[in-house]
Amino acid sequence: MGMVGILTMKNIEDIENQIRLIREALGEITEYLGSTLRNPISVSQRCIDFGFSFDEKAKMQAAFCLLSDRLEEENKKLSIEDCRKIIEETHPSQLGRPYSDDLIVGFVKGYARMIPDLELLSKDL
Hints:
Number of strands: 0
Order of helices and strands: HHHHHH
Distance between the termini: 59 Å
Oligomer: single chain
Strand content: under 5%
Number of helices: 6
Largest sheet: none
Radius of gyration: 18 Å
Structural class: mainly alpha
Number of domains: 1
């Protein structure tokens, strides 16, 4: 078997370093474009920043869809606590305290660009 099929510790380290550089580059680009905690350019970037998985991102999107449908049916307003519950149940804070309101609002605004009903509901946040 040739060298092509063998994954060495050096290869793994090089791949990890490349991934770190890509993450940093994405962060630098979104920051340059004006991304803030409260108004992110990309939900995916925010997930990367806080350690959310791809599946957790999808789970939150589905939960925000269901929440916006329920609130519209019940003619209720969106609350920061409803949103916090979705995020904390999906990916509990590793900070030793709940996620900040700004982070919660940022996630909601990010998902609102993908979920039209949520965009209308999130105007008051």
